[in-house]
């Protein structure tokens, strides 16, 4: 019974990872096209961050899910079980993982700073600054990943295949102290610290929006934005909570299990493929959740925009004419992530707003 259950678990993974590739890679490519070449109502800086995030996720899907996990489950001897691929693949995998995680972190921090300060907004709204920031994130991510090329070693391992004993090279972790140290640092840089920062700054964004609402009465917000202040804030904070919870729930299990695996079980004699050991099952489930998070990042950060959804309908129906959307940016929660330097829209019937209940804020 136990053997049958483990066999089902392996079969699920053999189907799950190729499916992630089939959905995730085209999905991120399509998202890149949408945010770069369609008018989705995003600022130029948001377009750069989200397009870089889509590209980083594509590379993660290729290096980690397609080349590593899919080949591991479908072939007996993947090519990366030999030199120099054993070292190169680790470097590429963590470079893409760092890039994806820290683009999300920096983008979230930037949104908070833009909401807090007009001077900072003017500086960060420059596309040149945003492009340099994204390039720096990718370069530093891969630079930090260089030590990970030396945590693996190709070692001959005796295996039983179809009742026959054979010896094949395997790319395994080195049983050295410095390997454990590098893995601890890597685990916190790719998982622990980004998780904490995303939670903190999403909370600060929500807190700032709540305090900002105290500057105006409900009637004043209705005149300026055309809808209820409380309703808009409720949806915005709900979105921020959803993003934070999704990121933590899908990333935290891998953070915990990876720490356990690479410390208590970080030796050459440990069989990571033995699913009779509970930590191996827990570790693979955590990996499945983590990889799902990378596959669906574009849904969390793009599909929250009504303008994006309407542009998506236009593309799928081959309708080149854009919809008349009105003030979409002010009526969607994407405003939190895509603060735009709007030019004043002139109207034949301008509205004058008198602030009647200003309160000082610290």
Structure description:
This protein is mainly alpha-helical. Helix content is 65%, strand content 6%. It contains eleven helices and two strands. The chain has helices at residues 2-37, 44-74, 85-116, 118-124, 127-144, 177-213, 218-225, 229-261, 278-295, 297-302, 306-316, and strands at 152-161, 164-173. The longest helix is centred in the middle third of the chain and has 37 residues, at 177-213. It is globular, with a radius of gyration of 24 Å.
Radius of gyration: 24 Å
- Outline the biggest β-sheet: 2 strands, antiparallel
Strand content: 5-15%
What best-fitting shape do the alpha-carbon axes yield?
A: globular
Structural class: mainly alpha
Helix content: 55-70%
Q: Which residue ranges are poorly predicted, with pLDDT under 50 across at least 5 consecutive positions?
A: 226-233, 322-359
Rounded to the nearest angstrom, the distance between the terminal CA atoms is 63 Å
Spatial ordering of strands, largest sheet: 1-2
Mean pLDDT: 77
Order of helices and strands: HHHHHEEHHHHHH
How many DSSP-defined strands?
2
Q: Count of DSSP helices?
A: 11
SSE blueprint and pairings:
Blueprint: H1 2-37, H2 44-74, H3 85-116, H4 118-124, H5 127-144, E1 152-161, E2 164-173, H6 177-213, H7 218-225, H8 229-261, H9 278-295, H10 297-302, H11 306-316
Helix pairs in contact: 1-2, 1-9, 2-3, 2-5, 3-4, 3-5, 3-6, 6-8, 8-9
């Amino acid at each position: 019974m136990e053997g049958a259950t483990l066999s089902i678990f392996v079969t699920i993974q053999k189907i799950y990872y190729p499916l992630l590739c089939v959905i995730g890679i085209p999905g991120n490519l399509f998202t890149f096209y949408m945010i770069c070449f369609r008018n989705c109502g995003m600022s130029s800086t948001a377009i750069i961050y989200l397009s870089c995030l889509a590209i980083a996720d594509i590379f993660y899907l290729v290096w980690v899910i397609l080349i590593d996990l899919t080949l591991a489950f479908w072939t007996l001897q993947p090519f990366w079980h030999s030199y120099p691929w054993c070292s190169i693949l680790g470097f590429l995998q963590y470079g893409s993982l760092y890039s994806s995680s820290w683009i999300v972190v920096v983008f979230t921090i930037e949104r908070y700073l833009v909401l807090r300060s007009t001077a900072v907004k003017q500086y960060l709204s420059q596309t040149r600054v945003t492009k340099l920031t994204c390039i720096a994130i990718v370069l530093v991510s891969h630079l930090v990943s260089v030590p990970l090329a030396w945590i693996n070693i190709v070692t001959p391992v005796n295996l039983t295949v179809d009742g026959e004993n054979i010896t094949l090279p395997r790319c395994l972790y080195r049983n050295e102290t410095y390997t454990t140290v590098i893995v601890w640092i890597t685990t916190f840089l790719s998982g622990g610290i980004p998780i904490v920062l995303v939670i903190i700054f999403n909370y600060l964004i929500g807190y700032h929006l709540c305090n900002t609402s105290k500057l105006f009465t409900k009637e004043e917000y209705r005149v300026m934005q055309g809808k209820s202040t409380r309703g808009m804030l409720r949806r915005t904070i709900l979105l921020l909570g959803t993003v934070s919870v999704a990121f933590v729930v899908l990333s935290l299990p891998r953070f915990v299990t990876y720490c356990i695996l690479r410390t208590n079980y970080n030796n050459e004699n440990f069989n990571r493929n033995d699913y009779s050991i509970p930590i191996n099952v827990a570790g693979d489930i955590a990996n499945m959740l983590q990889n799902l998070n990378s596959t669906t990042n574009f849904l969390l950060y793009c599909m929250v925009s009504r303008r994006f959804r309407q542009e998506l309908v236009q593309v799928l129906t081959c309708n080149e004419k854009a919809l008349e959307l009105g003030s979409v940016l002010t009526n969607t929660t994407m405003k939190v992530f895509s603060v735009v330097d709007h030019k004043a829209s002139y109207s034949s019937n301008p509205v004058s707003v008198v602030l009647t209940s200003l309160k000082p804020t610290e």
